[in-house]
Amino acid sequence: MCCGNNDIEKRAELPDAVDMELIKDMCFFDPHVHMTSRTTDDYQAMADNGIVALIEPSFWLGQPRTHVGTFADYYSSLLGWERFRSSQFGIKHYCTIGLNSREANNEALAEAVMALLPTFIYKEGVVGIGEIGFDDQTALEEKYYRLQLELAREAALPVQVHTPHRDKKKGTQRSMDIALEHQLDPSMVIIDHNNEETVEEVLNRGFWAAFTIYPFTKMGNERMVEIIRQYGSERIMINSAADWGISDPLAVPKTAMLMKKRGIDAATIKAVTYDNAIAAFGQSGQIDPNDFANGMAINQSEKFENNSILRGGQQPRIAKGSIIIQ
Ligand SMILES: [Zn+2]
What we know:
Layout: H1 8-12, H2 17-21, E1 28-30, H3 40-48, E2 51-57, H4 68-79, H5 81-87, E3 92-97, H6 107-116, E4 126-133, H7 139-155, E5 159-162, H8 168-181, E6 189-191, H9 199-204, E7 208-212, H10 221-231, E8 236-239, H11 251-261, H12 266-281
Parallel strand pairs: 1-2, 2-3, 3-4, 4-5, 5-6, 6-7, 7-8
Helix pairs in contact: 4-5, 10-11, 11-12
This protein binds zinc ion.
């Protein structure tokens, strides 16, 4: 065999079509997914599995940027081309705008980005300041986290907080302490990337607790089911945080399917995969569920600034089930 990937065990891990039937009437809102890094196939699969709306937080791109102009173009693409691309699959696209923690460590660049932010955060479809917070928990990360919390307070926008992978518990506590110091109401702050170690304190202090279902590193969805069993659904939401790394843009529907299989009731599943994200980020005044609850009209021949997602006179793609590519 020339392909090392024909291990039948691995194939068996693919979601079973019968299982996916369990969620066929459900709608999902993924409040954290980096679509800029994903393909049209991902959009199609997300739409096919019930994702009707999403939030794309601004983040770093895997490699540090060196010019402020690249931030301006990136923010513009989240508001323009990426929103258009999403609409072509019937998925409503929102975003959060901010300076991420990693790039906050380049002070000259961070200053220039801070000057740019007010020109983007008031635009239509911006549902929060994010994702901001700590990575290595440096002094510069703290400086720009604080400045952006002030910006969020002024703009009355929710804040989407990225918590660090290393020393997570301390970083999460510090993120909440600082948000309170800046007089943010915890109901306006979504603490992301929680785990079993952090969830209780986040909920007890009145913040929203988001969970990223991310293969191998953050949370597997079996652990997620147990957290839902223990804490219920109030102020909890699930996201994929799918990006340019090994990640899964179907993490939200797959976790809903698993919850259903494990006997979690439908109202709880809906709360953590749809309603709570809308309630939290809807405080921006930018989300009207009527825009997506019954699906969006799709016309893949539409154009954005003279460009469509169809290349070189392609026809809109409809049937994905065929092995024949025309
Ligand atoms: Zn992210």
